Structures are given as structure tokens and as C-alpha cells.
Amino acid sequence: MGLDASVRCRCFEDGKLKPGPVPVEDLYIDEDGFLFSKTLARARKELDYESFRTLYGKIEDDFWTWRRHCCEHENTKYLNAWVDNWAGCAHFNALVEEAGGEEVFPLLSNLLPHANDGLYPAEKAKDTLDELDRFLEQISDINQWILCDYETETEIWSSSNSETFTWMQNATDEIGMRGGAVFFKHKDEPAILTNHFLQIPIGDPDCNGQQRMRIECLDSNLITEAFDSLGPIGEPKVKREFFVTNKPGAFLFEGRYWTAESIRNLLVASIETGNPIQWC
């Protein structure tokens, strides 16, 4: 499940449609942005389903068949694009918020819908494209900070370069990422930041399988404790060394953010045709 979108071509407006089962004067663009028949739309409202199909079923079937190939664009679509799954759409919105949100990107912040329908006005496309290009320039150098196992280089956790969040927490301890470092916070003591450290088990695991860890920061020689081990669930709680490194954000592939590229293509198509983006 996710978000698709399309932009309708101009063949209706430019008089380039092939002859069809209803007169061209009967055609119009409905409230959802689709090419439809005034006669069929009126009959749908006035008749029950059985009566409608009896009187207009053949015309309706012929109309849908014709519309798929009524011009050089299949189903009158100038552009048809997959935007992203819903998690990817939420991530796009989160990146926009992180980059400045509605204050900096007022149109981009309200671009994507929350369901598979609706229109985005062509009148907003040019200004939204300008915002998108500024947004892409801003995020093109975003790095993702990665916590790795020193021996295997297995990636354990990650965050963007300006993000602060907690991975693990109990009543007295908190572990997470702050910028490009891991933080350990115990009770009311100041958080200790490190990007290269050892964890060493202390004592035996409790009844829940948790086990306290001695944390030795190899970059600062500071020592603290944590309430449990970092790393994948189910792995043995042993002495392990970790380090933090960085690489381009996971959403950037070969330097490009493909969700935003899809959105950009839709905005360009909307500008070129003067027609809205149809979310579906």
C-alpha cells in the first residue's frame, strides 16, 4: 500500500481526442479531475443501478474502453508515477519538518495527502517546485550516523546527523544518539557522549534477561554504566567494542532522493499541462 499519482494530459482541452461513443460536447472534467460524460454522470444520479445499466450499460462500457485509448496517452495520463509507500511518505514529511517545516516550506509541508485521493492544484505547482528544489539542495549532504560493531562492522543503530532520540530506557538509565555520538545517561548525572566504546557485562542477567554493562569510552577515557547491552536482541551479552561512523542518508541513492524526484516529475508535469496532480 502506498501513494500513486498522475497528471492528466491536455488532449481534451486541445481537441486531440479520437471520436468516441458520446459527442465531444458531452465530455467534461469531473470533480476528481477525470474525463467523463455529462449524460452518464446525470443518469447515475437520477437512476438506480439496475435501471442505469439497462439504459446506459452499453454506452458506459464503450466509454471506459474508449477512454483508455482515446488519445496518444493511455487513459489520458500525461504522467503516471509511484510516489512511495506510506512509511516513505511519512519520512518525506519528517525530512521537510526537520529542514524547516511549514515556516520555511509552507507548500511542501502540505503537499502529500493522507489518503489515496484528492487533487493538488496546478496553480501551486511552480511555487511548490521552487520549494522542492531548495529542499533537495538542503538535504543532499545529509549524513546518517551509524553505530557499528567494531569487529564485524555490523550496523546496529542509525540516525540522521541532527537527530537526537532514545533507543533504550528504564527508570534510571537512558541510551540513545545525539548528533554523531552515542549518549549514556544515568539518573540525574550529565549524559556521557562517545563514538568509540567498550561494553563489558557486569554480574548475571536478571529474570528479564537484562544485564548491566560497564561502558568504557575509548575516545575520552570516561567510564559509566548502562542497564543493558547494545546490539541485536538475542545475541550473547559479551564484551563488545562499538564505534560510530557516517555515510549518506539511507534515503539518498547515488546522491538522489527518489521519492522527491517522483514528486518533482509530477510538479513539472502539472506545470506543463496546467492540470492538477491527482493522488490515487
Query: Unreliable stretches, pLDDT < 50, 5 or more residues?
Result: none
Sheet with the most strands?
A: 6 strands, antiparallel
Strand content: 25-35%
For the largest sheet, list the strands in their spatial order.
7-6-15-12-13-14
Summed over residues and divided by their number, the pLDDT gives a mean of 89
Oligomer: single chain
Overall 3D form: elongated
How many strand units? Answer: 16
Q: What is the count of helical runs?
A: 6
Name the helix and strand elements from N-terminus to C-terminus, one letter apiece: EEEHHEHHEHEEEEEEEEEEHE
Radius of gyration: 28 Å
**What is the end-to-end distance?**
11 Å
Helix percent band: 25-40%
Structural class: alpha+beta
Explain what this protein looks like in three dimensions.
By secondary structure, the chain is of the alpha+beta class. The protein contains 6 helices and 16 strands. The strands form 4 sheets. Strands 7-6-15-12-13-14 form a 6-stranded antiparallel sheet, with no helix packed on it. Strands 4-1-16-5 form a 4-stranded antiparallel sheet. A 4-stranded antiparallel sheet has the order 8-9-10-11, with no helix packed on it. α5 runs antiparallel to α6.
